[in-house]
Every structure is written in structure tokens, then in C-alpha cells.
Specification:
heterotrimer; A alpha/beta (413); B mainly alpha (340); C mainly alpha (294); A: 413 residues; D-Maltodextrin-Binding Protein, domain 2; 42% helix; B: 340 residues; mainly alpha; MetI-like fold; two-stranded antiparallel sheet; 6% strand
């Protein structure tokens, strides 16, 4: 989803500008207005800046990078003509745009202007191209080579091995709390559950309907695993989110964790604690409960084109964005993200996400009611992860909260 | 004052409030009685860079037709208010019938869990912050005037630091590795002590933070009030042999009572909407508030739930009205007296 | 001045008072002092997960920058991220909000204080209830109409919204303040042949400043510290300081740059510092005048 290798923000955009200037200039056929809405972090700012190179007498380019993009995009694209012509989205944030019929199919534009795109960048919904992906992300295993070696354990491939390794590290007196996870109730905690559940191969919903189907052996195995992991965590684990994990990692107090690929660059970057960074390695997320794929959702970031705009603006916007995610841009900023752009050669920071993908990890689901489930999980798993209730009760609570929300949304009767 | 003059003076304020507060509130209230149209979903094949899966999607054409017929959605009556994520009436009835550990079961419902913390926060922080503010104002009032200025300035600081970052930094100080957390560990001789791990300690820290940020407002108001305590009343009380405590109790406090009502009113309302500390201290596991529920439905959610957020917001307003009822009745009486 | 002067306090009580005050002042000021100090360190020190001693000694700051102190946070916020732009926007927003809401509020508050009609009471109560609405809910409701009218993202829209949201508090404070100004003052002016507006302009305005300044300070703080409204209603180039600081904090999967936020917060507090120092006396006298009859 998001990539932000904490480099100097300004320097990055400067390089992007210089690089852009040195490369083939942006040539847009026709005239129009390009108005981009995106999240606010380095990699996307580079993309926005590259798109701005397409500005000319006939083409006006503006960009709004906002942390609130998810909440703004719906109303902004509902207006006619809409405030933005381009919305940069991910697996989860494209769903409200699809459900609200706010973005247009891109097949014609791809045929006309998309020569530099590779086929796997096309996000196809029901056979129609609805978005063009350009970055990938996901949570994968971070581990400390030195600690694992001292404890005499191999790099774990399954969560059973993670637990065994944690026990060995503890027994060897290397660390009291070798594990950590982003277990803070809220979006983070729900994402932990979703990752592991995806890895078991089970489905969240009964086929073709909004009926929740997580009350099964896999759901219980996931919760049992989450609980078991907390046994090796610092008692403050309830307050850990992804950003906090990176700081704990940097302080050298964790031996293994699953963490966002977008934060891998910072963990081994020039500002990181050198002793820790030198021993930090990445691998695919472990498997769970006999599952065969990494327990991680794969995320993509991509752009969509608004429906309520003129065809002229749509064509100009599409061309500007294709220029913004061109292989040239990628080459100039290769270390800034796990690009899903032709010719990308992953460095170390991208290796974990690539390992997840090649291990067959599944994408974060795009069902229209997945967001409701995520919200229900985010609040209702709190008592379970705090050790205040049992798995059966937690699953029942999630179902009750989800059912109420899904009824309100019209997905369940 | 004639009606025409009154409305000439009030018109701009009333217009602004109607446009930007009344109308949105009315639309929120109306919205909270509706639910989404019964969704028409179709199963389709979705392909991403990571492979293809068959998933459902909303049939937008069918939905557009439904939406055109009834733009508001389906009328739901009180369903959004009584469902499990809000007042949970059915669940409460069931818990009542089952018996057993009723409190724990009620606290398992999100609305009541949030309400418990909200009310605790509201009713502990408000009086304690007022008491602290009052004590500070008395103490500063005894200082020589050279020291008063700086003392007042530093006392107001907790009120003016941006809550967004203020709570983050204070929260950090309470971390086991932070300056306060680590000092507490060495003071108590308990290296595993963490103020963030258990529910009671988290509540204590949040309440403490609440008192810290709220005390300056009470302090400023009370300090100002102290300046207008009639000096001769104090003198005569002293001549009558009243002790310092008695002067505070029988002269100063009665004089400050109207101020205290004003402060209590504003603080109760603001504390009922407590939100920043919960997020700033990453305390979601152990403490949630009504405003946090709204935030969770609207801001942090991948798909926003307007009906649910609307219902919680309306319930918040009702809660504030109940809290303020005594003060409102009093204001009404004062007003009638004045009108006559 | 009220009650007792310091010389008359018995020694024990005096020690107790001073001790209490010292504890409070440390509690009130320490987090801020700590923040100012920390803003010159790198994040790994100020938010060290190893020990808070790092923040004092600056181990990692030394390692990363070669000195015990660094201005990197300030440089990052102000130069690389153009925080000055946000500061200018904040200045425009807060000054406009304060000026407009005081102008409308003094007129409204005056009318409310002088009218004995029932509807004046109900307007006050309605204003109070309005204040209870969580702001995020209100703001979410604005988005669609604003986009349709094409007024989203601009400073004036945000200013008007902030004024409206702030108006209940302004009206309440100013209403109780005007109650404390004797009715005879303006009524005698009207007996002398002034209209209501003339009486307001010539008799009331000259004596209302303490209350207005106090209320203005609270309006100012509201506009200044607002996050819910400004983060959702402004486009990037019009962003004010607080949402900008919010964006430095990072989000779920991308790391923020917290030291930019800390430096920005310290810089954002400087004008507030000066403001409070400047208006210190007026705040205190204004509040007394306004709120005694609350």
C-alpha cells in the first residue's frame, strides 16, 4: 500500500525533479486539467511531482497530498464535475469508489496511452481495468540474524517455529521479550487478524454473500496464535502500532516481528542504530496452522480516474499519471518503494514484500463489506488480546458487531 | 428590546449557526433513522498484481436505481440506536434474563464500555481539575506581585500546547523508558511496572492527564474571581475571629460560586467529548470514549459508517443534555426572574 | 487585592503553599521545557526506547549529526516542508476567525443580554446543545455540499465554518459579560435619543473590551488548535499548522517524521507565548467581568 523510505523528503522531490528533467519530457496529447488526490508520504509525493512535469499551456496539473484522502475522496468524486480527476488508492480505499460508481473503466485509455504499462499493473474488476497499480506493500518477517544465531535457531518459516525460536531466545537469556506485533486495538490489531486468517487459506465470508464465516477452526487457530505470541511480548504490547514497532526494533529490544515492508528501509537506513541495522534481515511472513502461504495481505497502491469529469480531462489525467509512474521515474527513485513497474530490481528493503508475493500470499480482500469487518475486528478483539476474554467470546463479539454494521449498510437483512 | 432590533443584532450569528450547525445536525439526526438500501451484489473475478480471485462487488446500476427511488435509503426507525453497537437493547434484555456476571457482560458491549470511561472521566476530572485550579489560584494569589506574572504564565501552559502533540509527548514520558515511567520504576523498585499495561493504571494516567490539561482553565477563571472578592468582607470576618480556612469556606467560596457553575458547565461538556487522550496515550485497549466510537466509525474506518456515527453523535448530545439538565433548569429560573 | 498578603501567612502555611505551587509549576511547565530541549535532538534520542537518558545526553544525536544538538527538526519542518506556508495560513485563519466571531458575537451577545424574551433563552440553550456535537460528525456532513458548490478547500470556507462552530461559546461568554454591564448605561443613552445601535456603539463598545479580549483569546485558541475542521476542509496549499503537524506524525504503514512535528509544535507555541504574556492582565480582568454572573 504505502511506501515511505524515510529519506530526506525535500531532497527526494528535488532528485525526482532533476531526474524527470533529464528524462524524456512529458508529452500530452490534447488539453485538460489534471487534479490529483493522494495520501501524504514521500513515494507518493514523488509521483505527484513527476506528474506535475506534464503541466503546459494546455494542461494544468495540481496535486493534493493529504493524510485525510480516504475521507475526502468519496464526496470529492461524487460532485459533478468532481474536485479531482485522479484518486490514488489501495486495495481497501478503492472499494467505496467502486461501490459508489465514482471511477471510470480505463480499458480504452490503456489501449491508447498505456504502452509503458506492464500487464500485471492492471487492476481488473469483472474484466474491466479500474485502476493502475504502481507500488506494493505488505507485512513480513523482520529478524535479528545475530540473536537467532546465538540462540542456535534457524530462520522460522512457520509461526510454530517463531514460538519455538522465541522460547529458545528467552531460555538462552538473550531477551525477555523477543517478539512484538502491532497489537494496538484499532486498524493495526484488525490487520494482524486479517493477515493470519488469509494465510490459513480460509475465506472471511460465505461465497457470494456478506455472511461472516470466521467462526471456524482457522479463526480459532489465528486467535490462539495471536494470544501465544503475546506471551513473549513486553506487557505494553497493547499500545504498539506499526510505527512504534520500528522504534522498538531500532532500540534492539526485539528479535522477531512482522512489520510493514514500507518501514523496512528505515530499519536498515543510515539513521538506524548501526548494530541493529547490520543484523536486520527480512523474510516472508511465517505460515500458520498448516497453511502454505505467508500470513500476510498483499497491498497495492494505484491510481484511478474519476467518472464525473470530461473525457478530455480523463485522457490528460491518464497520460500524466502514466508519465508519473514511468520506468524512468522508477529508476531514479528505485530505493523509495517496492515499485510494481517494469524493470524494477528489488533491493534489500523490498525483499520481504517480494518474498511474500512469491510465496503466494493473498491480496487484501476487496469485498464491499470488508471494511465493516475490519472496523468490527478493530474494536472487538481488544478484550481478547488484552487477555480479558476467550476466543469463542471474541469471535461471537466480532460477528455481532459486524452483523449490526452490515445490516445498517444494507448488506445483511 | 423590540423583536426587530433583537433580530437585527442576532441575524449574522443565527444565520451562521443555522447554516453550519443546525442544518448539519438535523441532517445527521434524519440520517440516523435510515439504513443503506439492500445491497445488490454480484460475484465477479478480480485480478490484481498478486493474482485473480472471485469476489463480490456492488452492482452499481441496480443500486443507482434504488438510490434514485429513495435517496435516503431505507427507513429503519430506531434500529440504528437500539442495535448491538449502540444501546444494545436486545442484548441488555438477554443479559438481564440470564443473570450471572451482568456487569462484565454489559461492559463487553462497545457503547457501554465507552460510556463507562466517558462518565468516569467526566465526573472525576471536572471536580478534581476545578479543585486543583482553585488551589492554584489561592496559592498564586499569596505570591508577591513580581512572581505572579511568570507563575500565571507557566500555569496556563498545559492549556495552550496543541493537544495532538501534547498528549503524545506526555504519553511518551509515562512510557516505561520515558522519564516519568522509568523514575517510577526505580522509585517503587519494581522494574516491570508499566503504566500502560493494565486497565486501572491506564485510567489513572488518563485521568491525571485530564486534570493536568483542565486545571488551567479553572485556575484562570477562579484567579480572576479572587480579584473581585470584597476586601472589607474579609477584613470584618477576620475581626470576628474567623480562621483562614473559615474565610475561604464562608467568604471566598460563596463569592466564586457563580463562576464555578460556569466552569463546571463548560468543563462537563468538553470532558464528555473526551477524545485526544485516548488516542494520544494509545489507550484504546483499556479505555474508549463516545467520541472515540464516532472517530472509529468515520475517520479510521476503511468504509465510513455515517448512520452509526450519526446515532452515536445524537446519543452524545442527549447525554450532554442530561448532564446539563440541572444547570439548564437553574438558568431558566434566572432568566424568568430577569424577564419579569 | 483579595485576602491575605504573603507577609501575614504563618510560616508553616507559607511553606506549604510555596511547596504546592512549586510542585504544580514543575508539573505544568516540565513537559514543555522537555519538549523544547528534545526538539534539538534526533528522534532516536528524544523518543528513545532504550532510556530517557539518551534524550539528555544525546547519544544518537551525536552519532547521526556529530553534535549534541541539531536543528534538523526545525530545518526539516520550516525549510524542506515549507511550514512557513502553513504558518501564514494559520495567521490568516485565526485572525479572521477571531475578528469575525467577535464582531458577530458582541452584537449577538449584547442582544441576548438585553432581551427578556423567551426565545432569547431558547437560542442560548440551542447554542449550548450545538456545542455538544462531535466536530468530526459535523465536518463529514459538510464535505458533499461543499464539493458540489465548489467551495471546498478554500480559506474563507474554513474561516466561516470555524466562526459558526465557535459562535455558541462566543455568544455565551459575551452574553454573560454584557449582563454585568449595568442596563442603565445604554438605556439612559436611549432616553437621550440614541437608537439601540447608537447606544451600543457609543456607550457599550467603550466599556466592553476586557470581556471581548478574553473571549477573543478563546476564539483565537480554537482557531489555532483546531484539527477536525482544518484537516478535512483545506487543500494542501491552504493547510494550516495543526493538520500539517498531524501529517508529520505519519500513518499506519508509513513512518512519519516526529521530530518535524516536535519542532513545529515548539515553533507554533512561540506566538502563543507572546500572546499570553501580552494579554495576561486582560484575560484575568475580562474573565471576572464576564463570568461572575454566568
Amino acid at each position: 500500500m504505502t511506501m515511505n523510505f524515510r529519506a530526506l523528503a525535500g531532497a527526494a522531490s528535488l532528485i525526482a525533479l532533476l531526474a524527470g528533467g533529464a528524462n524524456a519530457a512529458c508529452m500530452i496529447e490534447g488539453a485538460g486539467s489534471v487534479r490529483i488526490l493522494s495520501n501524504d508520504f514521500d513515494a507518493l509525493r514523488i509521483v505527484n511531482d513527476t506528474a506535475a512535469e506534464c503541466a503546459s499551456d494546455a494542461v494544468k496539473v495540481t496535486a493534493n497530498a493529504s493524510a485525510e484522502h480516504k475521507n475526502i475522496q468519496g464526496p470529492a468524486l461524487s460532485a459533478n464535475p468532481s474536485e479531482y480527476t485522479v484518486a490514488v488508492v489501495a486495495n481497501n480505499s478503492i472499494v467505496p469508489l467502486l461501490s459508489g460508481d465514482l471511477i471510470r473503466p480505463l480499458d480504452d485509455l490503456v489501449a491508447k496511452y498505456g504502452a509503458s504499462l506492464s500487464p500485471n499493473q492492471l487492476i481488473k474488476i469483472d474484466g474491466k481495468v479500474m485502476a493502475i497499480a504502481f507500488m506494493g506493500n505488505g507485512q513480513h518477517l523482520f529478524y535479528r540474524k545475530d540473536i537467532l544465531e546465538k540462540a542456535g535457531v534457524a530462520v522460522p518459516k512457520t509461526y510454530e517455529e517463531v514460538l519455538a525460536a522465541a522460547e529458545a531466545i528467552k531460555a538462552a537469556g538473550l531477551m525477555d521479550h523477543p517478539l512484538a506485533a502491532s497489537d494496538k486495538p484499532g486498524w493495526d490489531l484488525a490487520a494482524e487478524f486479517v493477515n493470519m486468517y488469509l494465510g490459513t487459506g480460509a475465506e472471511f465470508f460465505a461465497a457470494g454473500s456478506a455472511d461472516l464465516a470466521i467462526d471456524n477452526d482457522q479463526g480459532r487457530a489465528v486467535l490462539a496464535n495471536m494470544r501465544a505470541l503475546t506471551g513473549y511480548m513486553n506487557p505494553d504490547y497493547l499500545t504498539y502500532d506499526a510505527n512504534e514497532l520500528n522504534k522498538l526494533w531500532d532500540a534492539g529490544s526485539i528479535a522477531m516481528m512482522t512489520q510493514w515492508g514500507s518501514l523496512a528501509g528505515a530499519a536498515i537506513g543510515p539513521d538506524a542504530n548501526p548494530e541493529v541495522a547490520a543484523n536486520t534481515e527480512f523474510a516472508a511472513a511465517p505460515t500458520l496452522a498448516g497453511g502454505t502461504v505467508p500470513t500476510a495481505a498483499l497491498w497495492w497502491d494505484g491510481f484511478t480516474i474519476a467518472k464525473n469529469i470530461s473525457d478530455e480531462d480523463a485522457a490528460a489525467s491518464f497520460q500524466a499519471m502514466v508519465h508519473a509512474i514511468s520506468p524512468d521515474m522508477m529508476k531514479a527513485n528505485a530505493d523509495k518503494a517496492t515499485w510494481l513497474i517494469a524493470g524494477f530490481e528489488p533491493g534489500k528493503a523490498a525483499s520481504g514484500v517480494i518474498a511474500n508475493a512469491s510465496g503466494g500470499a493473498r491480496a487484501y480482500p476487496m469485498q464491499p463489506y470488508m471494511g465493516l469487518l475490519h472496523t468490527a475486528l478493530s474494536a472487538e478483539l481488544a478484550d481478547f488480546i488484552a487477555g480479558k476474554e476467550e476466543a469463542d467470546q471474541a469471535l461471537a463479539d466480532v460477528k455481532a458487531a459486524y452483523d449490526a454494521a452490515a445490516k445498517e449498510g444494507g448488506f445483511l437483512k | 428590546m423590540p423583536h426587530r432590533t433583537f433580530f437585527a443584532f442576532m441575524a449574522p450569528s443565527i444565520l451562521a449557526m443555522i447554516l453550519f450547525i443546525t442544518l448539519p445536525i438535523l441532517s445527521v439526526i434524519v440520517q440516523s433513522f435510515y439504513q443503506g438500501h439492500e445491497a445488490v451484489v454480484v460475484t465477479v473475478e478480480n485480478c490484481t498484481p498478486f493474482g485473480c480471485e472471485s469476489q463480490t462487488k456492488v452492482d452499481t446500476e441496480a443500486m443507482a436505481k434504488l438510490q434514485a427511488e429513495a435517496p435516503m435509503g431505507q427507513f429503519a426507525g430506531w434500529a440504528n440506536y437500539t442495535n448491538r453497537n449502540h444501546l444494545a437493547t436486545a442484548e441488555l434484555a438477554q443479559i438481564w434474563a440470564e443473570g450471572g456476571d451482568m456487569l462484565a457482560k454489559v461492559m463487553n458491549l462497545p457503547f457501554y464500555k465507552a460510556l463507562a470511561f466517558t462518565l468516569t472521566y467526566c465526573f472525576l476530572v471536572t471536580p478534581l481539575a476545578m479543585a486543583l485550579g482553585f488551589a492554584i489560584s489561592l496559592a498564586i494569589n499569596t505570591l508577591p506581585s513580581v512572581l505572579k506574572g511568570p507563575a500565571i504564565f507557566f500555569s496556563i501552559l498545559p492549556m495552550i500546547i496543541t493537544p495532538l502533540v501534547g498528549s503524545l509527548i506526555v504519553a511518551w514520558m509515562f512510557n516505561p523508558q520515558g522519564i516519568v515511567g522509568a523514575s517510577l520504576q526505580s522509585l517503587t523498585g519494581d522494574p516491570t511496572l508499566s503504566l500502560r499495561a493494565s486497565a486501572p493504571l491506564t485510567w489513572v494516567v488518563l485521568l491525571g492527564y485530564g486534570i493536568w490539561t483542565n486545571a488551567p482553565f479553572s485556575f484562570v477563571v477562579f484567579y480572576a474571581g479572587l480579584q473581585s472578592v470584597p476586601q472589607d468582607t474579609i477584613e470584618s470576618a477576620r475581626i470576628d475571629g474567623a480562621s483562614r480556612w473559615e474565610i475561604v469556606r464562608f467568604v471566598i467560596i460563596p463569592h466564586l460560586m457563580p463562576l464555578a457553575t460556569f466552569v463546571a458547565l463548560v468543563q462537563l461538556m468538553d470532558n464528555f467529548r473526551v477524545f485526544e487522550p485516548v488516542v494520544g496515550f494509545s489507550a484504546e485497549a483499556n479505555a474508549t470514549s463516545l467520541s472515540w466510537l464516532v472517530f472509529n466509525d468515520l475517520v479510521s474506518a476503511d468504509s465510513q459508517q455515517f448512520g452509526s456515527a450519526g446515532a452515536t453523535s445524537v446519543l452524545t448530545i442527549v447525554g450532554v443534555l442530561i448532564l446539563l439538565a440541572p444547570v439548564l433548569v437553574r438558568t431558566w429560573r434566572d432568566f424568568n426572574r430577569k424577564a419579569v | 487585592m483579595a485576602n491575605s498578603s504573603p507577609t501575614r501567612l504563618p510560616l508553616g502555611l507559607r511553606a506549604l503553599t510555596l511547596g504546592f505551587l512549586a510542585v504544580w509549576l514543575i508539573a505544568a511547565a516540565f513537559p514543555f521545557v522537555w519538549t523544547v530541549w528534545g526538539s534539538f535532538k534526533v528522534e532516536a534520542d528524544f523518543f528513545s526506547r532504550q532510556s530517557f537518558w539518551n534524550a539528555i545526553e544525546g547519544v544518537r544525536t551525536q552519532m547521526q549529526t556529530g553534535g549534541a544538538f541539531t536543528g534538523a527538526g526545525y530545518e526539516g519542518a520550516w525549510i524542506k516542508n515549507e511550514f512557513w506556508r502553513a504558518a501564514v495560513n494559520t495567521l490568516i485563519v485565526t485572525i479572521s476567525v477571531t475578528a469575525i466571531s467577535l464582531t458577530l458575537g458582541t452584537m449577538g451577545g449584547y442582544a441576548l443580554a438585553r432581551s427578556g424574551q423567551r426565545y432569547a433563552f431558547w437560542i442560548l440553550i440551542a447554542a449550548l446543545v450545538f456545542r455538544a456535537m462531535p466536530h468530526i460528525t459535523l465536518v463529514s456532513g459538510y464535505l458533499l455540499p461543499f464539493f458540489q458548490l465548489n467551495i471546498w478547500g478554500y480559506l474563507p470556507t474554513t474561516i466561516i465554518v470555524l466562526v459558526a462552530i465557535n459562535q455558541p461559546f462566543t455568544l455565551w461568554m459575551l452574553h454573560s459579560f454584557f449582563l454585568s454591564i449595568p442596563k442603565d448605561l445604554d438605556e439612559s443613552a436611549m432616553v437621550d435619543g440614541c437608537t439601540r445601535f447608537q447606544a451600543f456603539r457609543m456607550v457599550i463598545i467603550p466599556v466592553m473590551w476586557p470581556g471581548v479580549i478574553t473571549t477573543g483569546l478563546f476564539s483565537f485558541l480554537l482557531g489555532y488548535n483546531d484539527f477536525a475542521v482544518t484537516s478535512m476542509l483545506l487543500r494542501q496549499e491552504n493547510q494550516t499548522m495543526i493538520p500539517k503537524i498531524g501529517s508529520f506524525l505519519g500513518s499506519i504503514q508509513n513512518e512519519g517524521n516526529i521530530m518535524f512535528a516536535v519542532a513545529a509544535v515548539v515553533s507554533a507555541t512561540v506566538p502563543l507565548f507572546l500572546l499570553v504574556l501580552f494579554f495576561q492582565r486582560q484575560i484575568v480582568s475580562g474573565l471576572t467581568a464576564g463570568a461572575v454572573k454566568g
